[in-house]
Amino acid sequence: MKKIMFAFVVIVISIASCSKKSAPTAAKETAMDGAAIFANNCKGCHGADGIKDSRTPNLHTIALDKAGLVNSITHGKGHMPAFEDKLSTAEISAVADMIVGWHNK
Ligand code: HEC
Predict the structure, then answer these.
(1) 5 alpha carbon to ligand 1 midpoint, in Å?
(2) Residue having the nearest C-alpha atom to atom 14 of ligand 1
(3) % of the chain surpassing 70 pLDDT
(4) pLDDT of residue 23
(5) What confidence score (pLDDT) does residue 53 get?
(6) Of 35, 51, 55, 93, which has the fewest Cβ atoms less than 10 A away?
(7) pTM of the model
(8) Least confident of 21-30, 44-53, 92-101
(9) In the predicted structure, residue 4 carries a pLDDT above the cut 90
(10) How many C-alpha atoms does 75 have within 13 Å on its Cβ side?
(11) pLDDT, mean of residues 33-43
């Protein structure tokens, strides 16, 4: 009987620790990506919040959908460099999602 109780406790503890480990990691990755990519690659020209000055468009109000954002970030525009060699497709998608998120605020 003691052995069964012990096995039960071990199973409960291992299930509990598994679910604790996976949940926060997944949330952290999705929350982090776009903002971190923006801070590392775009902030210098666009400002931390995407609104800097008259040389760069206000990214909160720019009339581009996600496909348009991805296209401009990938291939560049005017004085803005292309990011196709610097960022992966997934990274460009994540930063575009973040800008779309600003539009929806
Ligand atoms: C070297 C400075 C610089 C960097 C770095 C930069 N941008 Fe830009 N960005 C600009 C300028 C300047 C424009 C205005 C281009 C124009 O309309 O001629 C612009 C325009 C844009 C536009 C509007 C494009 C359009 O089609 O109208 C978006 C969206 C944008 N940037 C997003 C980003 C993102 C996201 C990053 C980081 C991955 C980034 N930019 C990095 C300078 C920069």
Answers:
(1) 62
(2) 56
(3) 69
(4) 43
(5) 84
(6) 55
(7) 0.78
(8) 21-30
(9) no
(10) 6
(11) 95
Ligand 1 center from residue 11 Cα (angstroms) = 52
Ordered DSSP codes for the chain: -HHHHHHHHHHHHHHHHHHHHHHHHHHHHHHHHHHHHHHHHTHHHH-TTS---TTS--TTT----HHHHHHHHHH-BTTBPP-TTTS-HHHHHHHHHHHHHHHT-
Measured in angstroms, how far is the CA atom of residue 65 from the centroid of ligand 1? Answer: 14
Ligand 1 midpoint to CA 70 (Å): 11
Tokens 């071990």 found at? 10
- Average model confidence (pLDDT) for the chain? 81
The answer to whether the CB of 46 is under 6 A from ligand 1 is yes
Residue 44, ligand 1, Cβ within 6 A: yes
Taken in order of first residue, the domains within the chain and their CATH numbers are 28-103 (1.10.760.10)
| Rounded distance from Cα 77 to ligand 1 centre (Å) | 7
